[in-house]
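Take a look at this chain, tokens included, and explain the fold to me:
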Amino acid sequence: MAELVTMSSKGQIVVPISMREGFNQGTPFAIFRMDDTVILKRVNVPSAKEAFAKIHKFGMEFARKKGMKESDVEGIIHEGRGIKSG
């Protein structure tokens, strides 16, 4: 379905009510333009908590695959910094 809309002097375009279903105020979008075509794509921006959980899970799986234990971490950090343990 297509509807006719007009851009304001501030570059704003109102999305018709019939096309807003599933979107709320504050919904983030990426906008793409190619010649005379503009596309809006809803994007999922994870919260800091979600992003940290994903990174943590990756790190834990990586360490497990490498056979690393939590007790190895301090030595690995010191080694990376060029600090002698002891």
Q: What stands out?
A: The chain has two helices and two strands. Helices lie at 48-65, 73-81. Residues 48-81 form one domain. The chain has a mean pLDDT of 90.
